[in-house]
Amino acid sequence: MEMVTRMVADRPVVIFSRSTCCMSHAIKTLISGFGANPTVYELDEIQNGQQVERELHKMGCKPSVPVVFIGQQLIGGPNQVMTLQVKNQLSPLLIRAGAIWI
């Protein structure tokens, strides 16, 4: 978990993704639609992607992508992100993390 912790440090929004995953694309589009500029790690394109994916699994992320961190806090996968959106709680989280300004 040390590697993942370092990767999300000091970043308002981090998305662990896979370039071929349609759910990853949907979550990136949703968060970017708020005006946020998330840091995106494409696990199939970075050198240590498999190791990061194993760490995400150990953190309880199943499936391992997409996984979203907002304000260095693990939010979860697409179900958790979409639940926050439906409850109108995603935007306030992004604001508190400094990812967007309204």
UniProtKB/TrEMBL annotation:
Where is each Glutaredoxin domain found? Answer: 13-75
User: Would you name any one GO CC term?
Assistant: cytoplasm
In terms of InterPro entries, this protein maps to:
GlrX-like_pln_2, Glutaredoxin, Thioredoxin-like_sf
Coiled-coil positions are none
Keyword Protein biosynthesis assigned: no
Is Cytoplasm among the key words of this record?
yes
Top-level lineage group:
Eukaryota
Predominantly, its location class is cytoplasm
Keyword annotations: Cytoplasm, Redox-active center
What is the annotated signal peptide range for this record? none
Q: Tell me where it resides.
A: Cytoplasm
Q: Name one Pfam family in it.
A: Glutaredoxin
Family designation: Belongs to the glutaredoxin family. CC-type subfamily.
List the PANTHER family hit by this protein, alphabetically: GLUTAREDOXIN
Q: What's the protein here called?
A: Glutaredoxin domain-containing protein
